[in-house]
Amino acid sequence: MKNLKYYLSTILFLTLIISCSKESITVAETLDEAAADAEAGPDAVNEEEVITTLTITLTPTSGSTTVVTLKTQDLDGDGPNAPEVTVSGNLTAGAVYAGDMEFLNELESPAEDITEEIEEEDLDHQVFYTLAGLDATVEYANNDSAGNPLGTEFTLTANTASSGSLTFTLIHEPTKPNTGLGDAGGTVDIEAPFDITIE
Question: If 135 and its partner were Cys, which of 159, 170, 182, 189 is the partner (CB 3.0–4.6 Å)?
Answer without folding.
Answer: 159
